[in-house]
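Input chain follows. Return structure tokens only.
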Amino acid sequence: MDYLEKYNLSKDDILDIKESLNDDILSIFLLEDDKVISILDYFYSLGVVNIKEFILMKSTLFYENLDYIRERIEKSTIPKFELLIKENPGYLDFVGL
């Protein structure tokens, strides 16, 4: 999971994440790194910079594929939705993520 260093996460942050994720999600992070990177890159491009908090709050998001995530966000009718998720990833609940 060293690829998470790209998002300014320290070794300790990565260890915290590993210890916090359930086994199913951890296996996604270990075996499907391309999928995880594409999802994290997308949210990083939206302005989400606290990646550790994002992963810990919305770890189940990594069960989904990027196209589905993008579609849910783009079809949101909530004003300034991208700004809201940047401040609090919990707002993703409002679009079924």
